[in-house]
Amino acid sequence: MTNFPKIILKSGRERSLNRFHLWVFSGAIKKIEGKPEDGDIVEVYTNNLEFLATGHFQNGSIMVRIFSFEQTDAGEDFWIQKFGKAIGYRKKLGFFDNAETNVFRLIHGEGDGMPGLIADFYNGVIVIQAHSVGMFKMRQLFAKAFKTLLGDKIVAIYDKSDSTLNMAEKGEGNDNFLDGSIGFAQVLEYGNKFEIDFRDGQKTGFFVDQRENRRLLQNYCHGKTVANIFGYTGGFSVYATRGGATLTDTVDVSEKAIKLAEKNMNLNFPESPANRYFSDDAFAFFKETETKYDVIVLDPPAFAKHQQSLDNALKAYRRINEAAIHKLNPGGILFTFSCSQVVSKDDFRKAIFSAAANTGRNARIMHQLTQPADHPINIYHPEGEYLKGLVLFVE
């Protein structure tokens, strides 16, 4: 019998949970029985006191993140079983016995029924990132569960939640190892080598979610000049060169990222002279460069992290895509992305439409892209479809 604080919903506000949505918004709550603190486990009930779900409490717009639609003590056995299902799914996808790829998403928040938690696998190094206080508080238990389930496949487990939870929310500590220790991780993705700076790099160190889109890019680069804008550590650049690009320019405002991009290119192509690197703002680069390209990749950071910034974000997407299209040769190809969850597919497409129209050039959609299978979208939680991409042929 559990004895968690109770969240009582207003009449009729249980409908979303009956459809297995994973968030409870503050406006749906009638009253709270008990005094839960951020990160505490709570149970959610209807106005008639019928049990609905179990989740983590956190003051804010999203007040409860659901991790079970059954009553549970949420102890070690519960999480081992839950992690086991997520890992089993990745095994069915073939990730644990793939000689060409040993980097993938191991836990994907709502997509795996665990809102607020992601974990990436980097050739034996698991990097955990908590997006909720509740998940952060359970990090030691999670490390134990991973060791129980994966054993000698694990070299180290690293918690990297500083960038997603501020110190007041966490209440303690900095990013650190929960098990083992290692400097950098070197991984394979479709046979390409990458060094991962999981300590200081963005997100968990690598944009794992672009794996299939990078592979698609490779098919369009033979004999082409390519610009990888917001290139970070050179993922798209490596695939472009692998595909036979005659020139690959990598552009990122971070000088540290550019140095790692150059290192990753040299890991794969130590004698290739056809690569250039620019530590520069993307807008400034397009304004300054006289080079025209056959293929351009735009993979910017999230321009909109909150609904309030949506309008400005859409203007930024329009502006940067317009600048890119101006720099494409006739018959050029644009790979363009948004990783902003609050930007819908329709909004993104309209922004790209406006960019193309403003250049006066005809454009065709060749591909509509999204996130890969190890970043699953919970069918009851469509907000999880955050990555959107278009491939355009520009006349």
The residue-averaged pLDDT reads: 94
CATH names the topology of the largest domain as Rossmann fold
Q: What structural class do you assign from the helix and strand content? A: alpha/beta
Shape call: globular
CATH superfamily grouping of the largest domain:
Vaccinia Virus protein VP39
CATH class of the largest domain: Alpha Beta
How many beta strands in the DSSP annotation?
20
Portion in helices: 25-40%
Characterize the biggest β-sheet.
Answer: 7 strands, mixed
> How far is the first residue's CA from the last residue's CA?
66 Å
State the CATH architecture of the largest domain. 3-Layer(aba) Sandwich
Question: What's the assembly state of these chains?
Answer: single chain
Structural summary, described in words:
Strand 7 (103-108) and strand 8 form a beta hairpin. The protein has 3 domains: 6-68, PUA domain (Archaeosine Trna-guanine Transglycosylase, Chain: A, domain 4); 76-186, Transcription Regulator spoIIAA; 207-394, Vaccinia Virus protein VP39 (Rossmann fold, 3-Layer(aba) Sandwich). The strands form 4 sheets. A 7-stranded mixed beta sheet has the order 16-15-14-17-18-20-19, sandwiched between helices. The protein has a 6-stranded mixed beta sheet with strand order 2-6-5-4-1-3. 28% of the residues lie in helices and 29% in strands. With 395 residues, it is α/β, with parallel strands linked by helices. The model has no long low-confidence stretch (mean pLDDT 94). It is built from 11 helices and 20 strands. It is globular. The protein starts with 5 loop residues before the first strand and ends with a strand. The relative contact order is 0.09.
